[in-house]
Amino acid sequence: MGQTIFVVCRESIEALLVLGILYAWMNDREDAQTGKKWLFAGILAGFGLATLLTLTLIGVTDILGGEARTWFEIGMLAFASALIVQMVMWMRVHGRTLKQEIENGLATNLAGEKNWWGVFFLAMIAVGREGSETVMFLYGSLLQLDSFASYMSFFMAAGIGLALAMILFYALQLGGRFISWKWFFRVTEIMLLFLGSALFLSASEKLLGGPLAAIDLPGWLYSNVWDMTSVLSDSSVLGNLMASLFAYRSQPIGWDLAVLSTFWIAVIVLLKWQSTKKNEQLARTGVNKN
Amino acid sequence: MKFLRHFFLSSFIAVMAVNSFASTTEVSTSAQKDTDGFSMEFKDPRYSKLKTYLVEMKDGVLIPAELVVPEKTKFRIVIRNIGNKPAEFESNQLRQEKVLFMGAETSVVIIPLDAGTYDYFDDFAPTTRGKIIVKGKE
């Protein structure tokens, strides 16, 4: 029973944290209502994805063989990471002008819709990834049950695990209310970018351990650069959470650092380029008006 | 949301009723050590290119719970779930995460490691920790 509570709670929390960041990020926005619908649809689609992934895991269907599954995971993670960066960039332009646009009746639904697909896919991937493990664990445990009492305690445990995760989720949302929105938006934006880097890093590590395993890369890519396991091991609960949300590694190898610096340099260059472009546009429209 | 969960669970039961698993009977060779103190390799014709070790997972128990492997050498771990519950082979230090249903087998390739100790565990029952000791040839 304790094991079921533990697994359900932990896996749900990981998915709920991602959903929580997305939710907080778009909360208080003019078009948050639409966004929440997309978020909810994404969660539902995530359950579908979880089912599909579980079916491949328990060997019912072979749509995805071992190799194809790895590529699918890599693709999914890289896609999610790119989506996050794209969403943050879109909001930087749109977020500031959105209120004005709506007031001027200039809000283009089309552009909005395009962005919500990002929310939809991210929610779907978050639920699908964590969900498939939970569903398989629950299903496997369910097969071992033999008495009415064991069924009762099983469903109770699953319920308690989910409830605990929900309570933590609400605590997080409440926490957001005591902080000024502008600050919270900044923080969620940075958290989203960190989440993007974590997804990008795990995609690259799957690439390293999977398709790239047959190739011998230079030794420094495999060597530990530093070791802070004694400070915070990424096998601990906190370290693990930090790993999935912020790309924390207690023993990073050369590959990790190369991948992470590529990600952050790309993000900084993109954001810089975006703001110079915007400034130029502003300058130009300013000149035209005068 | 609860309804969906139940719906998915019951549809699995329906599909799984017609599904059966092959069981494995070999003994885990990697639990033994050779004269130099390294774990014995697991001989499998499918994986002849790399040094291969076998780890079996049985309801939270890891067999063996200790592997001794040479440093800076790429190797493979064949993982089998021989228990009655699903298992998840996980190691953040080794950057691995594989979910195994009952009776399932998979293999992971571990990149060349520096000398040191690395852990692995069943993420569905993380009470017991296995460790991989990486050391030099001499």
Q: What characteristic shape of chain A results from the CA principal axes?
A: globular
Q: What is the overall pLDDT average of chain A?
A: 81
Mean pLDDT of chain B: 80
Helix content of chain A: over 70%
The main sheet of chain A comes to: none
Low-confidence stretches of chain B: 15-26
Structural class of chain B: mainly beta
CATH top level assignment of chain B: Mainly Beta
Uncertain regions spanning at least 5 consecutive residues of chain A: none
Order of helices and strands of chain A: HHHHHHHH
Specify the CATH architecture of chain B. Sandwich
Task: Kindly provide the radius of gyration of chain A, computed on alpha-carbon positions and rounded to a whole number of angstroms.
Answer: 21 Å
Report the count of strand segments of chain B: 9
Specify the structural class of chain A: mainly alpha
Biggest sheet statistics of chain B: 5 strands, mixed
Superfamily (CATH H level) name of chain B: Cupredoxins -  blue copper proteins
Detailed description of the structure:
The complex is a heterodimer of chains A (290) and B (138). Chain A is 79% helix and 0% strand. With 290 residues, chain A is mainly α. Chain A has one domain. With 138 residues, chain B is mainly β. Chain B has a single domain (28-135), classed as Cupredoxins -  blue copper proteins (Immunoglobulin-like, Sandwich). Chain B has one helix and nine strands; from the N terminus they run αβββββββββ. Chain B has one helix at residues 2-16, and strands at 51-58, 61-63, 66-70, 75-81, 87-91, 96-100, 105-110, 116-122, 129-135. Chain B has a five-stranded mixed sheet, with no helix packed on it. In chain B, β8 and β9 (129-135) form a beta hairpin. The N and C termini of chain B lie far apart (58 Å).
